[in-house]
Request: fold
Amino acid sequence: MKRNWEGVVLKVMGAKDFTLEVTGREEITPDFLRVHVRDGGLLKASGLHPTMWIRLWFHDSGKAHQRAYTLVNASPADGTFSMDFAMHQGVAADWARSVQIGDTIDATVQGSSFALPEPTQRRIWVVGDPASIPAINSLLDARGTVPVTAWLEYQHDADTSLEVRTAPGDVVTWIPRKRDGAALVEDVCGSLTSNSVAVAEDFFWIACEASSTRAIVKHLRKGLGVDKHRIDALGYWRA
Ligand SMILES: Cc1cc2nc3c(=O)[nH]c(=O)nc-3n(C[C@H](O)[C@H](O)[C@H](O)COP(=O)(O)OP(=O)(O)OC[C@H]3O[C@@H](n4cnc5c(N)ncnc54)[C@H](O)[C@@H]3O)c2cc1C
Reply:
């Protein structure tokens, strides 16, 4: 298993390695593919939590590239899960586009952890896009009766048909990606104000393009004074 320096650092940090075997591939939309895998013992060894992600190792021109993907429909009993790939040009997306049944891929578990804060929140505010929809759906499944307001940025018309597992009372707004993400940031920050947000009672989960994620977190922390423990934010990709 050839790795770059990141693989060595992860090993020192106690990362666990597994080999996944592809058992199928599904086109959810032309720009969103689902790959089914046997887990090589990953779920039994690592457990499962909402928004759980793993590091996949792709090889291109003799180099190893690590990319994060979220577990979908995981079954520890069967030792299977799926992963959803938002399509663009990149080693990970290209792999999903051409992968065959029986292909294998190395995966490392290190760094994923998440638990909804206690006590229960008044409202959860979510910002994401197709890359984070798998994680958002696992969050929606885990949030009990807490209402959710979500903004989802999209680049392909079919993205808006992707399943978002909302409940009555949730609000989802799809925003086309415009001006390098500024349209999303302006809409979200314009809506998250001291009138709409209960700073000490709400929870914020942000996972979109890296600079958009940063801008929204800055608005929450500096503009509204939200405590960092009420924010879970991670740039999921870099424009
Ligand atoms: C914790 C975590 C979990 C994630 N889970 C998922 C998941 O379940 N499904 C998923 O699809 N992605 C997920 N991502 C995002 C994924 O890791 C990145 O999109 C990654 O960069 C894709 O790698 P690549 O090799 O295909 O493209 P890269 O080589 O990284 O990028 C190539 C080009 O594609 C563009 N690009 C990369 N990602 C996207 C994107 N999502 N949308 C539009 N353009 C893009 C880049 O700007 C660049 O120009 C997750 C990220 C994190 C941090």
Q: What stands out?
A: The pocket of flavin-adenine dinucleotide is lined by residues 53, 67-70, 83-86, 88-93, 131, 134, 234, 236-239 (CB under 6 Å). The domain at 5-109 is CATH 2.40.30.10 (Elongation Factor Tu (Ef-tu); domain 3).
